[in-house]
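QA checklist item 7 of 12: single-chain prediction sanity check.
[x] sequence parsed
[x] length recorded as 312
[x] structure emitted
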Amino acid sequence: MKKILITGSTGQIGADLAERLREQYGEDNVITSARGVSADIPNEPLFERLDVTDAQAFYDIAKKHQVDTILHLAAVLSAVGEKDPQLLWHINMNGLQNALEISRELGTALFVPSSIGAFGPSTPKVGTPQVTIQRPTTMYGVSKVAGELMCDYYYLKYGVDTRGVRFPGLISYKALPGGGTTDYAVHIYYDALKKNHYTSFIAAGTKMDMMYMPDAVECIIDLMEADPSRLIDRNAFNVSSMSFDPEELKESIRKVLPDFTLDYDVDPVRQAIAESWPDSLDCTEAREQWGFNPQYDLDAMTVDMLEKLGQK
C-alpha cells in the first residue's frame, strides 16, 4: 500500500484505521471519505465527502488522488439494517459494486470487510470453519455473503486484488459503534465508568466472537501487505481474538471496578441475530496464510478500554 482511500472513514473502524495508517504511510498518503452532514465531517488533511453509491464521484476521487489501495468500509450494520433492509442493500451492495468496478478500472487493491453475520443458525457454532454452510437470516448477513462471492468473482474473472476478513464484534474507545448486534460490548465500558452499572440488551450466556480495535487495524494492514503468493483464500478469512458472553465481560470489568453491576433488558431483534451467529471461529487459515496474531485477550482489552475511556 502506498496511496490509500478509506470509504466510511467516520465509522467505528475508520477512525482508528486512518490514524494508524497515517503513522505508517504518512499523512499525504491516506485519503479519508464519508457521506454525512457537516457536523460529522472531521478536520482531516485529505478528506473527501463521498456517497459510495455515486459511482462517478467515487471514481473521480480515486483517480484524483491516484490511489493504489481502497479500504472499503462504508456499510449499514446489522441492527440498523433490519429496520430498513432496502437501504442496507442499496448502500452495501451498490457501494461494493462501485468499489469493485473502480478497482478493476484503475488497477487498485481492494479490502472489503465481511462479518460473522455472514453465518446463520445452521452454521456450526463452535470452532466455526472458514468454509462452511452460510445461510444468514438477516439482510446484513445476506449482503455479506453476496459481497464475499462478488469479491471472489472479480479476483477470478478480472484479476482484481481483492482481500477481506470476517470481522467479529469490534470494540473501540475512539468511536461509538454504528448499530451492530455486538454493540453492547462497547457501551458496557462507557456505562461502567459513568454509572458503575450496565443494562445489557443481549442475554446472559450468549457468547459471541470479539476483537479489540488495535488488533483489527493491524490485521487489515497485515493482510493487505501479505505476499499474494501465500494467499490460498482471498475474501473471507475468519478472524477473532476472543469469545465471551455478558457475564464473562462483567467479571472482567469487576477486576478493575469491583462494584460494577449488570442487569438485562433483552432486545428480541438483536438477541435473535446474536443467536444465529457462531460462538467461536476457527482462525487457522488467517494465521497460516498471512500471520494473523492478535495481541489482546479479554482482560487486557478491559484494562486498556477503561484506562483510555477514563482519560477521555
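[x] summary fact logged: The chain has two domains: 4-168+211-238, 171-209+242-278+297-311.
[ ] second reviewer sign-off
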